[in-house]
């Protein structure tokens, strides 16, 4: 009672002091001024966060897919099986490290490192929250920021593919090599579409800095304004992560294990670690670019004034991050693996043309809005034009596919049998030389001799 009376006796200016003293949102110019101990603490915190996220993601994935498939999932290591990921890590560390005899040992050892290190670097530009006080020092809950921070994620993703390609090449195994080639082709096609989905975000935010992009979503998230870009990004991030339904580089049915067939022990664990860290990075990037970053959802932010200040935004960021991770896991337990030609066709013939057309549409709308034109008419005309283009594209694909099925070999009659492999991917003949380049062994003459009595009698 006395405390409430004392508070009521204070002037209004004093009561408003904490709100007025709240630190502003972090911007690009605010980075680079932290002391060395704070920078080291941020790097260590990000590293520990990623390792714990990997362990927890493995447990959540096994439990969720087990529930979807009417199984129990891990329930032995620790309470509710929570220590199963840690047990798997210890098991991989203690397993025998087998290196095949004919591999390129230097590249074979460096490939897992090249794959894992860029995965850690990408997360350093992800904002976890606003400016807070850490031991009396005002700093942003973010490792660092760059004028081209989003492009850093694309660059690190491209560098990680080098590890997969080099792992497949250095293993001297046809299955590993095919897995590496599939991964390079997949990343090239889907990374272009992913980069195009970012362009509309850059146009609306006016910056490639992640902190500026989050600040630009203070009133409305980009998932509402740029929903087509969000859909393209969600599809491409599944292709970037090499997970079902786009896990062709690891297709067990065709490639045994894919690019890491010959790896074991800690080297295999580093590929495993890189995959799950990329899963968290892609989810965090989707949260930052389209879901307002660390900002609270609309009902919470409108009712509670302090939802976007202090350490509370870390909670909203983690909730959005795990929502995307659960989406990845749900897709893995629901969808089958697509064919490789379907994967490439979706990337090159659907996602890229659609992204280019969407960028042109967004640029035109923003330019016309800046000139003072009526936005309602512009949106209606744009929607009609997009529908016509989509309809023409679908009709073209249907007509072209029907004509392709009617084609027959030139000069063939009505009863001619069509080659089922015609028009498909080139397949080496069964008697081709070994892939190492050694000449094929000539066919040996048959060692089975015909008895002379059968030759004379003609019974054979």
From TrEMBL:
It comes from Actinomadura fibrosa. It is a multi-pass membrane protein. GO terms for molecular function: NADH dehydrogenase (quinone) (non-electrogenic) activity. Its EC number is 7.1.1.-. It is found in: Cell membrane; Membrane. The chain crosses the membrane at residues 37-60, 106-128, 148-169, 190-209, 221-239, 268-291, 311-331, 343-365, 377-399. Residues 1-21 form the signal peptide. It catalyses: a quinone + NADH + 5 H(+)(in) = a quinol + NAD(+) + 4 H(+)(out). NDH-1 is composed of 14 different subunits. Subunits NuoA, H, J, K, L, M, N constitute the membrane sector of the complex. NDH-1 shuttles electrons from NADH, via FMN and iron-sulfur (Fe-S) centers, to quinones in the respiratory chain. The immediate electron acceptor for the enzyme in this species is believed to be ubiquinone. Couples the redox reaction to proton translocation (for every two electrons transferred, four hydrogen ions are translocated across the cytoplasmic membrane), and thus conserves the redox energy in a proton gradient. This subunit may bind ubiquinone. Belongs to the complex I subunit 1 family. This is NADH-quinone oxidoreductase subunit H. InterPro entries: NADH_UbQ_OxRdtase_su1/FPO, NADH_UbQ_OxRdtase_su1_CS. Keywords: Cell membrane, Membrane, NAD, Oxidoreductase, Quinone, Signal, Translocase, Transmembrane, Transmembrane helix, Ubiquinone. Residues 404-460 are annotated as: Disordered.
